[in-house]
Amino acid sequence: MNKSTSLKVRLPxxxxxxxxxxxxxxxxxxTYDENADAKFQNNETNPMENSVYRDYPYFADVQVMIFIxxxxxxxxxxxxxxxxxxxxxxxxxxxxxxxxxIQGFFQFNYGGKIHLGVINLLYAExxxxxxxxxxxxxxxxxxxxxxxxxxxxxxxxxxxTEWAVLKYIRINDAGGSILIHLFACYFGLGVTFVLxxxxxxxxxAKEITSYSSDILSVMGxxxxxxxxxxxxxxxxxxxxxxxxxxxxxFIGLSSSTITxxxxxAVFNKRGKLTMADIQNVxxxxxxxxxxxxxxxxxxxxxxxxxxxxxxxxxxxxxxLTPFMAQRLRIQDQCGIxxxxxxxxxxxxxxxxxxxxxxxxxTYGPSMYQIFSHRAPPVxxxxxxxxxxxxxxxxxxxxxxxxxxxxxxxxAIFSTIAAASIGGxxxxxxxxxxxxxxxxxxxxxDDELFFDMPAxxxxxxxxxxxxxxxxxxxxxxxxxx
Length: 480
Description:
Elements: H1 10-29, E1 30-32, H2 52-73, H3 81-107, E2 109-110, E3 113-116, H4 118-135, H5 144-169, H6 177-194, H7 211-233, H8 240-266, H9 275-280, H10 284-288, H11 299-327, H12 336-357, H13 360-363, H14 367-370, H15 381-389, H16 401-430, H17 467-472
Helix pairs in contact: 2-3, 2-4, 2-7, 3-4, 3-5, 4-5, 4-6, 5-6, 5-16, 6-12, 6-16, 7-8, 8-11, 11-12, 12-16
């Protein structure tokens, strides 16, 4: 074992420090919310009205996406399956623990205490998803210590950005196209820009897939595909808004899937399907409907968005990812810019269009619930009229559709800027010499950090493969 990459001291010490910090923070700041606290339960309490029955199904679905969907999807390299799945497991577990505290301060802080319930865990999972998307940009090129450091820094930066955008800019982003997908993408690109490895542009001997690793990876795709409607609808308003979110997500995913098959066949030199397209491009529709997922955009618009997102994602993998690596020093290992960046931008633009076109004729009084910042202020006579129709309606800012659209644009640029700067700074920290970063020749190899079984051997691959060799073996290295 090379001492520069040995985890014998680095990982245990770092984990111990993190655990001590989290125990202290939980002890001082974290308590139960009223749905989990026994002292709030009495003979007048209906147990079936507990929020666990409303929130837990979504929490469980997103859990499957985080640990099984992402985990399997990231195991596509032939000699990096252990690392892809296990480092995802490690990073996700810590990210959720850490996000409970950090997200709690901004979302569930009452009198200096974080009131913990299942809904907190759901918010923490969304923050965790941000980290795992960013992880895709540096897959195969980082140590578990580096990944824990990335999670440690990214979650606070994400939480502050999310809080600032929602509190001061105030936007509609039910599916997280801006605050999850765009943030995660540009944070990851910032990190990989700093961790640039020139020699990897020429290819790497172990940067290949296999029959079994591709099957495992597409299993991850299927888990993500099936549970994506829960991801997009979990935080929408219960009722018809959530119903539309589920419908739009399924329609968008369906259209992007069949489009991906068609594009994969027509642009393959031999007219065959490429597994990398099936594993990744099929998911594009889940992102492109995100910003407008709860709006009255119509089923046909959701279908069209799926096709548009899939097309942009496909050509991004084919042309943009190699260009970014060669010209911009951005080695986006898993193509997160295609599946989360390009599609996130399309989704954000679609959301802006939906906001501008929204009228009371289409939405009725509920428009002011969905677009809460367009609701009249409390001293406006119209607010009192609307409150008679919708008693739970809260006063808004009285923005017009055009004004809200400008705020959406401001949120896009603010989020991208914050994510990029945060990613660059995090990359510099991850580049420090004691982070156990693998050398170029040891990238994409499980043997560096794992005791491997006897039937594992990567020694026969000693020379980089050129682009033609990779294409012949269906070993495109852009996943997620």
